[in-house]
Specification:
Elements (H helix, E strand, L loop, with lengths): L1 E9 L4 H18 L3 E8 L5 E8 L2 H9 L1 H4 L3 H4 E9 L22 H9 L13
C-alpha cells in the first residue's frame, strides 16, 4: 500500500482554477482508476495552501494514477507554485489503512512505471522500521 500527503502551494489568484482541476481529478480518478483507497483535497489555513491525502492499494496503483491521461492532461504549471510529497504510514490499530510498502520494480514493468519510480520514489522513514 502507498499513502501520501501532498503539500501544495498554488499561485495567488489561481484558487478557482485549481479547485476546478481538483474536482475533475477526483471524479475521474474514482471513475477511471482501480486501486484507489483515498483521494481527498483540503484547503489549508494559510492562503493558497492545499493538501491532498492519497492512498492506493500499492505503489503501482499510485504510479498508474500519476501516468493517467487525466493527470497528465491538466496545466499544473500554470497553477502550482510548489508541491512536495510526504509518504505516510498508519499507526497500528489507529488507522484502517495497510502499511506503506516499497516493492521492487520487476522486469516486466513498462517504461511508464520505471519513469514514475524515478520521479516518485517511495520514501519509507527509517524510524518506522519494526514499528507497527
Amino acid at each position: 500500500m502507498t499513502t501520501i500527503i501532498a503539500h501544495i502551494e498554488i499561485h495567488e489568484g489561481k484558487e478557482k482554477k485549481w479547485e476546478a482541476i481538483m474536482q475533475d481529478m477526483v471524479g475521474r480518478t474514482f471513475t477511471e482508476e482501480t486501486g484507489v483507497l483515498r483521494y481527498e483535497y483540503f484547503k489549508g489555513q494559510k492562503p493558497n495552501f492545499y493538501y491532498c491525502l492519497l492512498s492506493f492499494e500499492d505503489k503501482w496503483a499510485f504510479y498508474r494514477h500519476q501516468n493517467s491521461d487525466h493527470h497528465e492532461g491538466h496545466d499544473f504549471a500554470d497553477v502550482l507554485k510548489s508541491i512536495s510529497l510526504e509518504y505516510l504510514d498508519p499507526v497500528e490499530d489507529a488507522n484502517p489503512l495497510p502499511h506503506t510498502e516499497d516493492p521492487a520494480l520487476t522486469d516486466d514493468m513498462n517504461e511508464g512505471m520505471r519513469k514514475a519510480q524515478k520521479l516518485y520514489p517511495t520514501d519509507l522513514a527509517s524510524w518506522w522500521t519494526g514499528r507497527k
